[in-house]
């Protein structure tokens, strides 16, 4: 059997459907049928039981599948390693993230990268709001997934991966917690918790504005060094925080409530890397991130 014939057989053994197999491999169903019939003639027995409704492996087909799978995987890995070496897709990639949902995305991409390029290593670490760009600018990271926009020298904005509706995290007993939604003007009614540290102005204006759109001052709440302090400060009744709406799934706890905004821009998350450029490994990882978020958006 030729390598392509083996790929068709293994795909059909997994899909158990001629049409899906053909679509997956971008061939015609008749091509799939021809390959299977040719293999059965060469081997001397049926590999599949076919009816108008079902396709099943015969015992002979199961035996062939089980024997071919490890060898086929080895061939794929050998080709992937050669491609990776030729394209420079090797080594260790250091990736930062600022939120749990960015971490989920980074780890999914890392899993895919290791599957395709087993010699690659991805190391991830959390980025704190008190120093959101420090590790990247010091060369401790190759790229990071975090809040947009940044707009500072030495850092390049890559693609936006997620556009999140915003919510206001407030104490559960605050009057705003009884509302179905809030507006940007409502920020004048509650102290806003703020971050200490080197925070780009472009992000401060989105996450911790000092005035409402109509110019009303927003009270200044307590400051935090690390973002995980924020839910505790809110639960204690010391202020509120602008967050992505999905934060309710990651950070909910007694004493706080999440109220969606009816206005204002989204909170965007994307890829940042040093202005000096990317390696081929980093570019491959960014492509995987983009593919994952496109698939997630389509599914939703």
From TrEMBL:
PROSITE patterns cross-referenced by the UniProt entry: HTH_LYSR
Residues of the HTH lysR-type domain: 1-58
Keyword terms, alphabetized: DNA-binding, Transcription, Transcription regulation
SUPFAM superfamilies membership: Periplasmic binding protein-like II (SSF53850), Winged helix' DNA-binding domain (SSF46785)
InterPro entries in alphabetical order: LysR_HTH_N, LysR_subst-bd, WH-like_DNA-bd_sf, WH_DNA-bd_sf
GO molecular function, one term: DNA-binding transcription factor activity
Pfam families: HTH_1 (PF00126), LysR_substrate (PF03466)
Domain of life: Bacteria
GO cellular component: protein-DNA complex
Family: Belongs to the LysR transcriptional regulatory family.
Name of this chain's protein: DNA-binding transcriptional LysR family regulator
């Amino acid at each position: 059997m030729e390598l392509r014939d083996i790929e068709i057989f293994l795909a059909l053994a997994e899909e158990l459907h001629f049409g899906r197999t053909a679509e997956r491999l971008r061939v015609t169903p008749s091509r799939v049928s021809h390959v299977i019939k040719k293999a059965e003639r060469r081997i001397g027995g049926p590999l599949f039981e076919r009816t108008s409704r079902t396709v099943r492996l015969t015992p002979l087909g199961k035996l062939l599948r089980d024997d071919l799978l490890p060898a086929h995987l080895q061939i794929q890995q050998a080709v992937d390693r050669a491609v990776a070496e030729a394209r420079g897709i090797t080594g260790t990639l250091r990736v930062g993230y600022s939120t749990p949902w960015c971490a989920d995305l980074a780890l999914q991409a890392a899993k895919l990268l290791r599957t395709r390029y087993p010699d690659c290593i991805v190391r991830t670490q959390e980025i704190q709001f008190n120093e959101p760009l420090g590790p990247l600018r010091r060369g401790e990271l190759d790229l990071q997934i975090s809040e947009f926009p940044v707009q500072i020298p030495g850092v390049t904005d890559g693609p936006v991966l997620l556009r999140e509706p915003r919510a206001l995290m407030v104490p559960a007993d605050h009057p705003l917690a009884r509302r179905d939604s809030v507006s940007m003007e409502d920020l004048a009614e509650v102290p806003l918790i703020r971050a200490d540290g080197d925070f780009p102005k472009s992000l401060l204006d989105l996450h911790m504005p000092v005035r409402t759109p109509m110019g009303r001052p927003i009270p200044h709440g307590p400051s935090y060094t690390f973002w995980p302090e924020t839910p505790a400060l809110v639960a204690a009744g010391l202020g509120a925080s602008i967050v992505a709406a999905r934060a309710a799934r990651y950070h909910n706890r007694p004493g706080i409530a999440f109220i969606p905004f009816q206005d204002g821009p989204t909170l965007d998350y994307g890829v940042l890397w040093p202005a000096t450029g990317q390696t081929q490994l980093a570019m491959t990882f960014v492509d995987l991130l983009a593919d994952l978020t496109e698939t997630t958006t389509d599914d939703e």
